[in-house]
Queue: 2 jobs
Job 1
Amino acid sequence: MDYLLIQVTNGAIIGIIYALIAVGVTIIFSILKIVNFAHGDLYMLGGYTAYYIVTFLGVPPLGALFLSMAGLFLFGIVLERLFLTPLYSDRTERKDEYGLIVTFGLAFFLRNTALIVFGPFPLRPPSFVPGVVHVGGLAVTNDRIVAGAVGVLLILALLYFMHRTIWGQALDAVSQSRDSAAIVGINPRRFNSLAFGVGAALAAAASALIAPIYSLSPGMGVLPNIQAYVIVILGGMGSVLGSIVAGILLGEAEGLFTAFFPDPTRALAYTNAFGVLVLMIALILRPTGLFGRRHVRME
Amino acid sequence: MRIVRRLLLIGVVAVVGAGMILVPVKTLLGAAEPIKLGWVGPLSPPGGYADGQLMKDAATLAVDEINAKGGVLGRPIQVSYQDTRGLPEEGTAAAERLISQEHVVAIMGEFHSSVFLAEMEVAHKNGIPIVAVDVWANKITAAGYPEVFRVAPCQALIATQWGNWMVAAGFKNVAIIYEKTDGGQSARDVLLPILQAHGVRYDVVGADLNQTDFTAQIERFKTHTPPYDLFHTIYSEAGLYPMVQQAHSAGFAPTARTGISNTGGPATTPTFWKNVGDAGKYLVTEVVGLPKAKWNNITRAFVANFTKRFNSPPTPQAIENYDATYIIVDAIKRAGGTDPKALIAALEKTTWVGGRGKYSFATDHNPDWHYHQFVDAPVNLVQFDKVGQTPDDAPVVWPRSLATVQYTYKRPPQ
């Protein structure tokens, strides 16, 4: 029983981190109608930002997390203004392709710049709270507990923002129909920046939370980027709630697969493949994902 | 007046004449065409770019030293550095670029066996010598290509030491996680028959190189009956750090019951302690260089110069690349030129003494990996007994002939 409990606990914590990354991808997709291939690299950048805030400014890790989120929020807006505005121009004929190429280019640029600026050696920020908590046969590190708890709080804050604030509701309106939103007086362009900024800030939070457990490296965003897309598709393209649920589901599925797959020598190697298998099955049963709604291209 | 004019004319002619003679000579002396070498290795993701950077730094140091002493055959050495990103297709492209565009006379480097296997095919096709620096898969030299030389020990040499150490230390039940790469599989294939022959039980789990979460697997190991007494990791990249940390925080290893070890190199890099902290104490790892007690003047000078220039102590991979650079230059010198066949012949007769001892390359094929392998490449196992310890300062536990302590494995207190 302890074994199952610890695997479920660890799976849930990793799932929450997945959800934080994926929900950012979803918000950006639902507003800008582009798949942001640089999201994994914004995630990486957020972790490094928090690390240097702790190292050079002496800010406690939790404070550094929020400062990093603020920094990446602003950086996301700058990136969106600099590179993505052609998406909103009628002169841009192939908007999907433009978004894809620009975010791909951005991903490579950020990753290689990080290599030069931060160096190639992995870095580990200090723990949020050092130590391990033992409850019966259950042993979980404090860093994992903090990552899970803060992750849940951020997700709840996001849901509150999306459903209970005027800005969140306007964001949702733009995601459903830019033209209709414009008719009721919402400026969709302003919300493009907001969406990209919020997405980048959530990625930063995920990275800062996981860094004491996994360490930071310039290439750390590659795998989470892939997992984020699995989650976004699984949850339903454009659905924030779908991304949260699918993120936690994927974390649990991967953990439990490793824990219980009959051939223990192959379980770990096939963990990521199992995530994709879950996606395939889900899409056969529900082609629009768990909470998907049909989306159109940028109007 | 006429005399003055004549003297002026003679003066001008003399100056112009001297210039016509001296300028070309000076041009020839000052701009001697450099001898171009190629370097391949990972300098960006997804490859092991941290190790690649250290290797590149070491090569740069060696080239600067060689050029400061006048180069070789009166010509400076110039190296074209190619980032292969840990991808075989990038390795092929880099080797082709070096040979067909840069016209290098020899290639050195690489950290990933799978990438080197691709690069050596290009070198073999073009007849250009290539020196493998930190790639361990047996099949590299087992291919029997005359162009391929290796300064690193191969898995047959390394994993045999590991197997013998595990037997000598009395481990009976070993949990192994290995990276699913040519290097990782080669290590596994050499190690398992040794354990089997000595009745040591084991379970082997493969993992992707970019894996960072091992908690579920470690928890699974913890439930095994009878309990494992050693957690052996065959991992050459930064994934080792979260693995060591997670094994420690889960209470699996290192403990009084279960030891921990790593083969592959990441425990010898300067960032190991920054990433694992206390979890790294009691870990056993290999050093593919001379133990500190056996250092020669070249080793000492290299360590001092590298540390001074790059503000960080070198790794065994770094000194391998430093020596590889000198070995190629030594071969060029003895060959009296850069003809590839003459260079290969000269490399075969290498007797150069470097920072890792006296180099020579076997020319027999028995066993197959012997061919052009530095058979006497040093391999020793060290166990960290202090947090923050450098591998050079850690006690040598294996082989016993080089051991600096009585024990073969020191367990943490209960």
Note: The interface with chain B takes residues 3, 6-7, 10-11, 14, 111-112, 115, 119-124, 132, 139, 141, 213-215, 217-220, 222-223, 254-256, 258-259, 264-269, 271-272 of chain A (CB under 8 Å).
Job 2
Amino acid sequence: MTLSVDIRHCQGDFRIEASFTGSGRLTALFGPSGSGKSTLINLIAGLIRPEEGRIEVDGKVLVDTKAGIFLPCHRRRIGMVFQDARLFPHMSVRSNLLYGRWFTPAAERYMDMDAIVDLLGIGALLERKPAGLSGGEKQRVAIGRALLSSPRLLLMDEPLASLDEARKAEIMPYIERLRDEMKIPIVYVSHSVAEVARLASDVVVLAQGKVTASGPVAGILRRLDLLPAGERGEGGALVEAVVLRHDDAFSMTVLGSAAGEIRVPGMNIAVGDPVRLRIRARDVMIATEPPTGLSALNILPGKVASIAYGDGAESEVCIDCNGVSVISRITQQSRQTLGLRPGLSVFAVVKTVSFDETSTGKGMREAHL
Amino acid sequence: MDWLLDLTPDEWTAVRLSVKVATVAMLASVPPGILIAYALARGRFWGKTLLNGIVHLPLVLPPVVTGYLLLLAFGRRGPVGAFLAEHFGIVFSFRWTGAALACGVMGFPLMVRAIRLSIESVDRKLEAAAGTLGAGPLWVFSTVTLPLILPGIIAGAILSFAKAMGEFGATITFVSNIPGETQTLPSAIYTFTQVPGGDEGALRLTLISIIISMLALVASEVLARRLGKRMDVE
């Protein structure tokens, strides 16, 4: 799938000028609230008509203002999951799920009702009315409804934003399964580093209606300067790892990565399965000698690759641990005391308990799109 | 009870005619009622305020004036009436159809108001969601908007029916008071009160008219509650 967007549009005082192409399995549109993410996704869905520009999905032109093309929303075959599930209150869950099917030509229906119901775990809800569902259940049904219209592209507009942490944790694995098991490209709007780190393959960063960066997720999340101010503490390195073994005695899971073994709190993932680990920059300490008498369990040897100086008390040190970039956020003072400079051999120290369920998620299997 | 149901043939005729006129007036008003309510709730067009004014005129004009205007337009020699009679064989003047037209027109603003309010309360985000699922505008209307405004349509229809049952001024002005053709319950009651010894008949018809109106209201309550349960809108 390739999605290419090149749009200029004014909405009240807000001006959005965005241009990017995405070809990932799950492309995150990432930025703080008010950055134009939702406007952009509504433009792609066809719910808003752009003043100027062009949008193309897999060679099919959806909008081209120069050529006078504007494909109405219902002819785009782009599924959309809204923040507020927007289930039809007068229909049962089953009718909601099957709604889009009516409008899809039989030859183009590639989604199977049973498979989707199974994937999302909503089999027990089919005869219920939306009003009786919990927030998480509603959102799962909304995802199923969008999928069953057999769309070319699935848009998700902050589908977790209106849910509490427990519900987010409930939905997240389903979106991971969707990304890994369904042959459908996803564009996912989010303002949360945790969600993007866990779900995205590619990221488009938006700020004040403009694209400030785009590319594979690991490269974006270690650029702390690209992240919204409130979320900067969540930024850091993304490490693709594999479950090596579970240490039942201490309820830990040992992961293998190019940087070495990493111990995290026990995860419910089978041995051999891929894991995507986010090591927050603020959780990484640096030692210039192998530390002893230290409670931290993860000590990764590496070399300082680069140092970025922030404007305040902090600096960001990028450590190359056998090809894996680990970012550490330390004070200017520590940097000076340790005499850090590019090329210096150091140890990146990470406490096991600094990993939580928002920083560990199922990794992506090999792409099959 | 016997006394109440022991109606003279003429009285029965008035009751039957009233129900028929009110039912036809209500049913015939629903489609244009939905159309105009939708235009007023959603449309952005020149003359919207004017249309709104015209729809509401019967509510503010004296019924006699409405009846007289109907007579001018739909009478045998009126421009619309002559056209319809000539091309479609539809005659309104001094027929029960004319009574239905008068009742429909008088109840129309009430129906439009009820439907318009319910259209305005429909969450347009649901319609947008239906669009992203592939439903074109007409499908969105018939599968999402229409079911959601059904309680409003029923409320509007019942109001129109109740108004038709009680309509007097416009009907008597437009189609007169002909027993068996245009003499509805209110006209019949009026006639009874104008003759000596008519008190008993007037009272009987009054009670019957109360019963019919109450039944209509109860029926609408039950229907609305059932629909409400089916929808369970949050």
Note: Chain B has one domain: 2-228.
